[in-house]
Design brief:
The chain has eight helices and two strands. With 335 residues, it is mainly α. A two-stranded antiparallel sheet has the order 1-2. A hairpin with a 2-residue loop joins strand 1 and strand 2. Belongs to the insect chemoreceptor superfamily. Gustatory receptor (GR) family. It holds the Pfam family 7tm_7. Gustatory receptor which mediates acceptance or avoidance behavior, depending on its substrates. It is a multi-pass membrane protein.
Length: 335
């Protein structure tokens, strides 16, 4: 079914590209409104975790998030205005395109911001464990007297217990994040794949098109397709970068725990560290959505899929030209 049947398209591929945009965009928008209350509860819990960060870490993270969001917002807005000014669409349709793009952008950046906060929390946990390791290594019985040694061990036990509770809370937040944003991220990944594939195809077909158009029209067409491709590519790379670095930060915690275990001879501390290790085994803290890992493997899969389907589309195009040599290849209309 062509949900954009009122728009005149010259090719099937352009219809598929536009229909996929409207379907995926509408789905993400509806999902955003349905999950509004759970998302707000989750954001309140994220706020509590962020308040526990050190001032330096909090300021660094805030600068990164604000810079990314502001630059990205203006990039999306300017790109949309530049492209839609040249399109002969109704005002309602233009507003719908702008609205869907901004909703999808805001939700993707919200997910990335939450991942950045959780990554900062994992880093703080690892820093606390590093401090515990230094205390454990510099306070063996032959250095401290008996009273100081007992006080040191009691302090370490309290610190380890506090870090365990913090790690448990952050791990639960990671699980909640995956639950709330699962549908949105799966749709985003599929939409990224389709948009990059189709727009690269449009650029190639226009380069091989026999229809002559003015340089101005050609620049508008190329600019629109290149901006869409660049936007989706940069967005998925930023999200994958945040998830990949967050996963690595969480994995470093297990390494630090084992280093502390090897640095102490106290049985109580070792017992608490064993419990902590079991907790780490139960919480993988990999940012995955319904089996879809948000890491470098996702970029590899998208790149492979784009290459495969792009070659298929080009083969179909050549087959059509061979079967109907009299009809020139129609130029793709930009939307």
């Amino acid at each position: 079914m062509n949900v954009a049947k009122n728009i005149l398209f010259q090719t099937v591929t352009r219809r598929l590209e536009r229909n996929s945009f409207y379907i995926f965009g509408a789905f993400i928008t509806v999902t955003t409104f349905i999950l509004n209350k759970p998302r707000m509860r989750f954001l309140r819990s994220i706020l509590k975790h962020s308040l526990k960060l050190s001032p330096v870490s909090y300021q660094h993270m805030s600068k990164l998030i604000h810079l990314k969001d502001i630059c990205g917002f203006f990039f999306v807005l300017i790109s949309l205005v530049y492209s839609l000014m040249e399109m002969h669409f109704s005002l309602l349709r233009k507003w719908a395109i702008v609205y869907l793009n901004l909703v999808m952008y805001q939700m993707d950046m919200l997910y990335m911001n939450c991942v950045c906060v959780l990554k900062a929390c994992f880093k703080q946990i690892n820093d606390s464990l590093t401090h515990i390791r230094e205390v454990a290594m510099n306070g063996e019985p032959y250095i401290l007297n008996d009273t100081g040694y007992k006080q040191r061990n009691q302090f370490l036990l309290i610190e380890i217990e506090a870090v365990k509770k913090q790690h448990q809370a952050v791990s639960e937040a990671v699980h909640t994040l995956e639950t709330i944003f699962s549908l949105q991220l799966i749709t985003m990944a599929v939409m990224t794949f389709t948009q990059i594939t189709f727009n690269l195809y449009f650029i190639i077909t226009q380069m091989k098109s026999s229809i002559s158009i003015s340089d101005y029209e050609k620049s508008i067409y190329y600019s629109y397709s290149i901006l869409i491709t660049a936007y989706h590519l940069i967005k998925i790379m930023l999200i994958v970068w945040a998830c990949e670095t967050g996963k690595r930060q969480a994995m470093e915690i297990a390494i630090t725990v084992h280093e502390i275990f090897n640095s102490t001879s106290n049985e109580q501390i070792k017992y608490e560290l064993r419990l902590f290790s079991l907790q780490l085994m139960h919480h993988k803290n990999t940012f995955s959505i319904k089996g879809l890992n948000m890491d470098a493997s996702l970029l590899t899969s998208i790149a492979g899929g784009v290459t495969t389907y792009l070659l298929l589309l080009i083969q179909f195009l050549f087959a059509i030209n061979i079967c109907d040599k009299k009809s020139p290849m129609s130029m793709e209309d930009s939307v």
